[in-house]
Amino acid sequence: MSSPAPIPTAQPWAAPTAHGPVDAALDLPGSKSMTARALILSALSGEQSTIAAPLLARDTELMADGLRALGCAVSTMDDQRWVVRPGPLHGPAKIDVGLAGTVMRFLPVVAGLADGATVFDGDPAARVRPLGPLVAALRDLGVPVEAHGVGRLPLTVTGAGRIDGGPVTIDASASSQFISALLLAAPRFDNGLVIRHEGPPVPSAPHLRMTAEMLRAAGAGVDDSVPDLWAVEPGRLSGRSWVIEPDLSGAAPFLAAALVTGGVVRLPGWPPHSAQPVTEVRDLIARLGGTLVVGPDGITVTGGGTVTGIDVDLSGLSELTPMVAALAVLADRPSQLRGIGHIRGHETDRISALARELTALGAGVDATDDGLVIRPRRLRASTVHTYDDHRMAHAAAIIGLAVPGVRLTDVACTAKTMPQFATLWSGMVNSAEDRR
Ligand SMILES: O=C(O)C1=C[C@@H](OP(=O)(O)O)[C@@H](O)[C@H](O)C1
Ligand SMILES: C=C(OP(=O)(O)O)C(=O)O
């Protein structure tokens, strides 16, 4: 396979310090997880679909490219409305997954439905992200997969144009995306799918809820009423008009800015019924000392002046760990973040990366088996390594609000999910400074 697309060039960045409360209304980009699911479901449906307000970022663009490589027409000409025209899925194809968990987990199952061989590879850091249980499940379902070592990239999936489906067992404790990947394609399996999880708890329950909800919206029959068991009926998926919500996880650092500075951040345009875990995030913000209110004008987060340290199981909201860890070093008491051992397999080993970088900033940090213990201490200026991880960059930016002299080795890694992060962040901080 040709070498994977280059990783965005590193861009060192000085995080702006806030000298008072932020007060901002932000128009944030679409949800990565919803855009990824809408693309897959549209590509597997019977007719044309549109995706309004999609996320324009590296992860979703790689997903669109991957579907194109498999024979699906995806027009991204109009930034506000992508058009997906499904076509017969076929190889040979080469797919660059970048560092996107959604691309490296969702597309191999789609490739199993294609006729021919598809080769997958990605950034060097993607080659160490877990994939083995999904590879094993695909093989159990009769799809030939060649993988590196224990089931890592690079991968070759040789589809026969169809998958029998039926019962399969998987250990999805390393990533909920293994289950979402199989569920999203399952209506196209001849016999549908009954998937059982066996192993330590599956993380990211809200993402599995989103998968089931979007499958149902596309016309699939899904039963997710029994813990650790999901059933999808075989059937035709309908093309439809998807409308993507703003990304709640992408919003998280901005919400954190309200907490750190005792300010206000508003996110207009939030739907009354959200596919994302707004209630869980509201409860988390409340425990951290702020308030999140959902009203007709959208979401408003107000900081209470002090960040409260917490003891919290973040397994459902694990992608928010870097943001919560950043708040924890600025909090009034120690925090314990639990239930997140699997984030060692995220964009980087986030447990080790956070422990190392927060310690360098002066915090007291212990990595535990399933998370982090964080003791706030006097912090100092430091250059934070971002490890190509967008959310490590977010964490450093949050701390930089309160600690002068925080520099990031690279802010360009935020292009994974929000290429405009540095501009939006500086705009939020500078507009508050200008008003003072
Ligand atoms: O399905 C999805 O869109 C996602 C599921 C979660 O993955 P894990 O279960 O691997 O944490 C989450 O962390 C990731 O950012 C997006
Ligand atoms: C874990 C994350 O991403 P991915 O979809 O690449 O797993 C994340 O965005 O925090």
From TrEMBL:
Its EC number is 2.5.1.19. It catalyses: 3-phosphoshikimate + phosphoenolpyruvate = 5-O-(1-carboxyvinyl)-3-phosphoshikimate + phosphate. CDD domains: EPSP_synthase (cd01556). 3-phosphoshikimate binds at K32, S33, R37, S175, S176, Q177, S204, E319, H346. Pathway: Metabolic intermediate biosynthesis; chorismate biosynthesis; chorismate from D-erythrose 4-phosphate and phosphoenolpyruvate: step 6/7. The keyword Heme does not apply. The active site is at E319. Monomer. Catalyzes the transfer of the enolpyruvyl moiety of phosphoenolpyruvate (PEP) to the 5-hydroxyl of shikimate-3-phosphate (S3P) to produce enolpyruvyl shikimate-3-phosphate and inorganic phosphate. This is 3-phosphoshikimate 1-carboxyvinyltransferase. It comes from Pilimelia columellifera subsp. columellifera. The gene is aroA.
